[in-house]
Automatic annotation (TrEMBL):
Domain of life: Bacteria
Organism name: Sinomicrobium oceani
Protein name: Uncharacterized protein
């Protein structure tokens, strides 16, 4: 009877482990099918609207992987953007076609031809200035404090019309700018001849994006504030926390 029980237990354990392995393989396959590598970083592909600099909620449980924009932070200063031109490969072009089924940018990818269409990778790189501006908005801080599932879109891969691709790749500098009249961002392209070009978010088809989360700490007055913006596969710096609730709230009323 004891031997029979052990055999049954081993069989159940084997079935459980097999199902567990299959489940993780499915998740890995799901992630692999819905991601591309841009600037040596893994980005999620998307068919839903995504904009650089926006904040939203991310659903990341199998079989769902969705990002929903909830707010566009108001910025009174520009944020520096790293812009790099890349050539499409077949996988990335398929991601673009899924985003833009009518091929709004009129791009053509032919395996047998050496010349391939190009796209632009954009990444927010001025986290110090950016974080300072976010901390100036008390309503935004109150919103983020209770939402550990909130992320910011800090990098994107986008298809644009050829004239915009060349302008961005040849630019002296690129910035993310907030337009208070429409509560949206646009790209400010500063050319070497001192002219300025504006590229709206509607002028690009974003087919992949990268997310970052917020690390919390105390300011000198022991108030909660955002200390850093960190890519989702990284950890918060020492002394800061992803959950605002973990930060020790020691208010020094003599400094108020």
């Amino acid at each position: 009877m004891l031997i029979f029980t052990r055999k049954v237990f081993r069989s159940i354990k084997h079935i459980f482990m097999t199902k567990k392995i299959c489940f993780f393989l499915l998740i890995a396959l799901h992630i692999g099918c819905k991601s591309v590598t841009v600037n040596n970083q893994l980005q999620r592909t998307t068919t839903a609207p995504v904009e650089l600099g926006t904040i939203g909620l991310h659903e990341d449980y199998y079989p769902y992987d969705r990002f929903t924009i909830t707010t566009t932070p108001k910025l009174d200063r520009k944020v520096r953007v790293k812009a790099v031109k890349h050539t499409f490969n077949k996988r990335k072009f398929n991601a673009y076609e899924n985003t833009s089924p009518y091929n709004r940018m009129q791009l053509q990818y032919i395996d047998s031809l050496p010349d391939k269409p190009e796209y632009i990778a954009l990444e927010l790189i001025d986290h110090v200035n950016h974080t300072a501006m976010l901390n100036e908005d008390p309503d935004l801080l109150d919103y983020l404090k209770t939402r550990t599932g909130a992320f910011m879109v800090t990098s994107v891969a986008a298809a644009l019309h050829g004239v915009h691709v060349q302008a961005i790749s040849n630019a002296e500098s690129v910035f993310l700018v907030y337009d208070p009249d429409i509560s949206k961002y646009y790209l400010e392209i500063n050319n070497r001849d001192k002219t300025i070009l504006k590229v709206r978010m509607e002028d690009m088809d974003i087919f992949a994006y990268g997310l970052s989360f917020f690390c919390w700490g105390e300011n000198p007055r022991h108030r909660l504030e955002i200390k850093d913006i960190v890519e989702e596969d990284q950890r918060c710096p020492a002394g800061t926390y992803k959950k605002a609730s973990k930060v020790k709230k020691k208010v020094n009323y003599f400094k108020l």
